[in-house]
Design a protein that fits this description.
- The chain starts with 7 loop residues before the first helix and ends in a 10-residue tail after the last helix.
- The protein has three helices and three strands.
- β1 and β2 form a beta hairpin.
- 3% of the residues are buried.
- It has a single domain, classed as Factor Xa Inhibitor.
- 34% of the residues lie in helices and 11% in strands.
- By secondary structure, it is of the alpha+beta class.
- The mean pLDDT is 88.
- The chain has a three-stranded antiparallel beta sheet.
């Protein structure tokens, strides 16, 4: 059985919390920044949890996904 390959582009865009939730950043951050409110730009900086359906698709693309181990 061959190894399952990780989708590297997906792996670079997500982060896993200690409880196992998947966080993903926002788009729409670079183009026409001056037209966006400062509050909107601050909100776009945060990573937010993804929905269950998106998390399912991400876990298929990144097979070794698990919470980071505390040392």
């Amino acid at each position: 059985m061959p190894k399952i390959k990780t989708h590297k582009a997906t792996a670079k865009r997500i982060k896993v919390t200690g409880t196992g939730k998947i966080l993903m950043g926002h788009g729409f951050q670079n183009h026409k920044r001056s037209a966006k409110a400062k509050r909107t730009l601050r909100k776009l900086d945060d990573m937010t949890p993804v929905s269950d359906g998106v998390a399912r698709r991400i876990r298929l693309r990144v097979p070794g996904l698990s919470p980071k181990k505390q040392k």
